[in-house]
């Protein structure tokens, strides 16, 4: 029976989404950043140019010269400073401070060092360049920032892999698709994962955590072949899944001293498009030859299935249909919208008042 039916309405189906600033987002793979080279990207509709200085530190600047608005990426980067192509203004990229205006003469009193281009905190973590984007109009950011997100790891030796996929939908559709527990047997049909015939009822326990919610530690789904492989270790298997605003899904699987963890982010590129990034690490089957290549192959197929579904959904969303969320399978999506609105408003209660148990079939 459908209970607590939520009509999202035509407005929610429109391409743009309200975006959460004041947090860290993965801009691109850190390996793309080389000394003396600049790389363009976009986050939350903000044009960015990133690079790596000679000392190895990475930077992220707003890709606009504060003088006349030309993209800084059209200019030059010598490993120390970024120079604008239009008038040669030169900037220290980590701070954005202007260090030279070539057109100035001895008769002018303008101090170039009091001029700043847009620059954002940028840190390298888990193979990504993470950029902190403050609320528009807040000026230069201080040092009191939240911690840079990091993938949990449980041993010194592990293997890892990265995946990425662009989605033609806004971040809200990307995120509720990411946390949707009922699409697996349909979107991810495969001999090595699930089939429609494997659907059965499930019971999961959830609890509130700061800025998110947790699917409490539980035995993983018995109808997923990859989890069955862990049975060779003869240890109990548990899975914990956390969702944390603005866009992060952490999954940890433990089997004795063996483990697998992943961090999946759905990052808004613009108000109407987003991107999935996945970093996974594990020490399971560590000695198996080509295990990273095998995991990347199957993981990429899994992500492509989600990507194709989002492409097809985008076709329908062009007509602005009214949408709905049902209980219990769509309850996490409701929690996400509640958490997001509380974050955007700066007030409001957590949508989970305490632990809750949900049931669905998948």
UniProtKB/TrEMBL annotation:
Top-rank taxon: Bacteria
Gene3D superfamilies, sorted: Naphthalene 1,2-dioxygenase Alpha Subunit, Chain A, domain 1, Rieske [2Fe-2S] iron-sulphur domain
Domain Rieske: 24-131
Pfam families: Rieske (PF00355)
Transmembrane segment boundaries: 279-300
GO MF annotation terms: 2 iron, 2 sulfur cluster binding; dioxygenase activity; metal ion binding
UniProt keywords, alphabetically: 2Fe-2S, Dioxygenase, Iron, Iron-sulfur, Membrane, Metal-binding, Oxidoreductase, Transmembrane, Transmembrane helix
Annotated InterPro entries: Cholesterol_7-desaturase, Rieske_2Fe-2S, Rieske_2Fe-2S_sf
Record's keyword annotation contains Oxidoreductase: yes
PANTHER family in alphabetical order: 3-KETOSTEROID-9-ALPHA-MONOOXYGENASE, OXYGENASE COMPONENT (PTHR21266:SF60), IRON-SULFUR DOMAIN CONTAINING PROTEIN (PTHR21266)
Protein name (Swiss-Prot/TrEMBL): Phenylpropionate dioxygenase-like ring-hydroxylating dioxygenase large terminal subunit
């Amino acid at each position: 029976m459908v209970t607590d039916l939520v009509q999202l309405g035509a407005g929610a189906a429109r391409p743009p989404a309200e975006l959460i600033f004041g947090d860290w987002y993965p801009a691109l793979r850190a390996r793309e950043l080389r000394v003396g080279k600049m790389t363009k990207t976009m986050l939350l509709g903000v044009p960015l140019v990133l690079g790596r200085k000679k000392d190895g530190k990475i930077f992220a600047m707003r890709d606009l010269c504060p003088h006349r608005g030309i993209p800084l990426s059209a200019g030059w980067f010598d490993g120390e400073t970024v120079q604008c192509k239009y008038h040669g203004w030169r900037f220290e990229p980590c701070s954005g401070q202007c260090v030279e205006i070539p057109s100035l003469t001895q008769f002018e009193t303008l101090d170039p060092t009091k001029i700043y281009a847009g620059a954002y905190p940028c840190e390298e973590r888990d193979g990504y360049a993470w950029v902190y984007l403050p609320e528009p109009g807040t000026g230069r950011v201080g040092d009191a920032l939240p911690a840079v997100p990091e993938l949990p790891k449980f041993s010194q030796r592990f293997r890892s892999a990265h995946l990425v996929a662009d989605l033609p939908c806004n971040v809200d559709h990307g995120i509720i698709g990411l946390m949707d527990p009922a699409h697996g047997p349909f979107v991810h049909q495969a001999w090595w994962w699930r089939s429609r015939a494997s659907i059965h009822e499930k019971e999961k326990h959830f609890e509130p955590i700061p800025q998110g919610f947790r699917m409490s530690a539980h035995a993983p789904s018995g109808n997923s072949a990859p989890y069955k492989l862990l049975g060779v270790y003869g240890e109990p298997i548990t899975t914990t899944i956390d969702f944390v605003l603005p866009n992060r899904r952490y999954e940890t699987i433990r089997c004795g001293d063996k483990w697998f963890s992943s961090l999946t982010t759905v990052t808004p590129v613009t108000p109407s498009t987003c991107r999935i990034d996945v970093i996974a690490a594990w020490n399971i089957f560590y000695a198996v030859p080509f295990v990273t290549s095998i995991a990347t192959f199957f993981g990429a197929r899994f992500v492509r299935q989600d990507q194709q579904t989002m492409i097809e959904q985008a076709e329908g969303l062009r007509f602005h249909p009214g949408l709905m969320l049902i209980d219990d399978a769509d309850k996490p999506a409701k929690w996400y919208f509640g958490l997001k609105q509380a974050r955007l408003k700066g007030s409001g209660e957590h949508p989970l008042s305490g632990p809750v148990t949900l049931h669905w079939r998948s």
